[in-house]
Structures are given as structure tokens and as C-alpha cells.
Amino acid sequence: MNWDDMRVFLALGRSGTLARAAAIVGQDATTVARRIQRLEVALATTLFEHGAAGQSLTESGHRLLAHAEAMEAGARAVQQQAEEGAGLGGTIRISVSEGFGMGFMAPRLPRFAEAHPGIALDLIASTGFLNPSRREADIAIMLARPKGGPLIAAKLTDYRLGVYASEAYLAATGPVESIEALTRRRLVGYVPDLIYAPELRYLAEVDERLEPAIRSSSITAQARLIASGAGCGILPCFIGGAVPGLVRLLAQDVAIERSFWLVVHRDMRRVARIEAFIGWLRSEVAAGQPALLGERFKNSVEKH
Length: 304
Description:
The protein has helices spanning 4-15, 18-25, 29-43, 59-85, 98-115, 167-173, 179-182, 203-206, 219-227, 237-240, 272-287, 289-292, 298-303; strands at 48-51, 54-57, 90-97, 119-126, 139-142, 151-166, 187-189, 214-215, 232-236, 246-249, 256-265. By secondary structure, it is of the alpha/beta class. The strands form 2 sheets. Strands 3, 4, 5, 6, 7, 8, 9, 10 and 11 form a 9-stranded mixed beta sheet that branches. Helix 1 (4-15) packs across helix 2 (18-25), helix 1 (4-15) crosses helix 4 and helix 2 (18-25) crosses helix 3 (29-43). The termini are far apart.
């Protein structure tokens, strides 16, 4: 039996679908299916039942899962001991929203990599989140505190969002001095039926009449659209304030605040490399508070 197949089995047993398991182990779904089949042949038993919703564990699969998790815990303890006696090593997989991942973490991650050259980093920055409960990620930075699961969650930081437009757009169309004026402008925003978290439904908080005419599921694409003069839109201040040529509008009238939550599986919290990363991230967030809270660009706000 190939013992690495157990890692694939754990991923599928926890996630329930070949696609999610493939994302966890960094292989394609066909390879995952083939390795599960090989494991079933080696053990002479059926581990999964295949249904429309995915793969569910059989009775034999549930029994094996307990043994596989014990093996995983043992391997983690050995790695922890090795890390404590030498430089930190291993891989950290971080699941994060696209905006925070691209706009805040990515420019800063090289500093962590330089300080810990033995640690490999997987930054999964996309719409939606991998699930630490199912070990799809080691760390998740989420928009809301999870309601259950074997997780440790703590608020990482508050952040603010504001209305932004490009200087060129304002020069062509005139100033936006009220929310009423904003309702008459072309807006950039999310595709409504593709919004993956309720925390992203903030246009109605400003005014129920606000509807985006140009829509994207990507906050990075929205920022580029706004910067190119497509219209006005709401962006996290740490993104909007960092894009040259963007101006924050109606800062006194539009005050949208959200939070990021730091989430880890409780079994991973004391792993040395995870502790090192969390400590580093908290220090970066503390240093980045002006950008996160939209305090760095007051001159641009006041100017318009």
C-alpha cells in the first residue's frame, strides 16, 4: 500500500467531492479517483459510495478515517518536533478572499518568505473559501466568524470600504457631492447572483436604488474597471487607496465597515510554522491599519 494514498483518502473523506479533494492535495480529480481506487484494491474493500452530491464514506471508509487521522496526528507531531529542533519547514496553505489576498497579503508575503525560507506558501485567493474544518486549508481569512466546527476563530481586523472613481471620470462627468448624485452615475459592482458572502451586499446599505450597470465577480476586475473610467464603485479602502488615479468620494456620508476573521483548525493552532505565520500576519495588519481603515488618503477625500 502506498501510504501517500492515505493523504488523498483523508482529503476526499473530509471534503466529499473529487474536485475539492484535488484542490487540497494539489492533484487533478482523475488522479485522486485513481489513487482512491488503488487504495480500495490494496485494502480489498469499498471506501466510498458515489452519488449525485459527491462521494460519501462507507462503513469501512469511516473506520479507515479514524486510523488515517491518527496517522496524520502522528506525522504532525513528528514534524512539529523536527521544526522545534531546526528551522521551520513545511507548507502553509492560506485561503483568503480575492481582495485581501491580492490587495493586502500578496505584496507583503515576500517578507515572510525571506524570514522563513524553509516554508512553502500556497495563497488561495479567490471567490469563496476553502474549509479549515475539512483540512482544505491550514489558515483561512474569512469575512464572518464560522458558526461551528473544530475551529479556533479570532477577529483579525476591521476594515472599511468607500466609494471610488477615477480622476478622469470625475473630470468628464463632474463631481459627486451627494448620494443622490451617485444614484445617477454608472456604477461598477458585483454580479448579484454570484455574490458568495452576505457581507459583500453593501450597495443597498448606501441606497436601495444603487444598481451596478457593469458587474464582475472579481473585486480586482472592479478596481480596474473603476480606474479605467467605467464609473463609480465601492472598494475596500486598502485596494482603492492604493490604485493611482482613484479618488474616494462621499467619505462623510458612506461609512461601510466589515471585519476579517482568522480561522484555523484547532489541531493546527500550536504547529510552529502556523504560529509563526499568524504572528507575522498580525504584525503586518497592525502596521497596515491606516490603509485598512482608509485613513491614509484623507487629502484625496477632502479634495473631492
